[in-house]
Amino acid sequence: QVRLVESGGGLVQAGGSLRLSCTASGRTFTLYGVGWFRQAPGKDREFVASISRRGDSTYYADRAKGRFTISGDNAKNTVHLEMNSLEPEDTATYYCAAATAPNFGIWSKAYAYWGQGTQVAVSS
After folding, report:
1. How far lies 96's CA from each of 6, 38, 77, 79, 123, in Å?
2. What average pLDDT score do residues 3-32 get?
3. Distance CA 74, CA 87 (A)
4. Phi, psi (5° rounding) for residue 21?
5. CA distance 87 to 67
6. What residues contact residue 23 under an 8 Å CB cut-off, 6+ apart?
7. Strand 92-99 to strand 113-114: parallel, antiparallel, or no bridges (unpaired)?
8. Which residues pair with 12 in a beta bridge?
9. pLDDT band at 103; cut points 50, 70, 90
10. pLDDT at site 102
11. Is a pLDDT exceeding 90 seen at residue 108?
12. Which residues contact 49 (CB under 8 A, 6 or more apart)?
């Protein structure tokens, strides 16, 4: 089993920044990578970004490219999501998820473990 705990959410004005963190514990050696997803009220959960276990491969949703940066600290079993130039449309609950198989991609079904989520609210 793997446990994921997110932190770093909050309320920020448009144009501001937040740094989300996801810390994993348990059988982390089984993981191939970590992804961030988000879900706004009344909308489906959507992919934001992902990173491979070694950190040598990252992938971003179009909306995140150029504004968000995903990075990993294997020594601390932590993945960060640096979010800049935030917009009201970024308001959502952000979840980190861990994949136990390769080619995890952008599909939520490819991720076996999920955190409880952290709220991000961007005011205009």
Report:
1. 7, 9, 13, 9, 23
2. 96
3. 30
4. -125, 150
5. 10
6. 4, 5, 7, 76, 77, 78
7. antiparallel
8. 122
9. confident
10. 87
11. no
12. 35, 36, 58, 59, 60, 61, 64, 68, 70, 81
Q: What are phi and psi of 96, to 5 degrees?
A: -100, 150
Q: Which residue has the tokens 């990578």?
A: 33
Q: What is the rounded average pLDDT for all residues in the chain? A: 95
Neighbours of 86 (CB within 10 A): 21
Measure CA 17 to chain center.
15
Token pair 């070694």: residue: 54
- Interval 96-105 mean pLDDT: 90
For residues 87 and 44, what is the distance between their CA atoms, to the nearest angstrom?
Answer: 18
Provide mean pLDDT across the span 37-47.
96
d(CA 4, CA 122): 24
- Mean pLDDT calculated for residue range 30-57: 95
> Is the distance from CB of 92 to CB of 20 less than 8 angstroms?
no
Identity (one letter) of the amino acid at 105? G
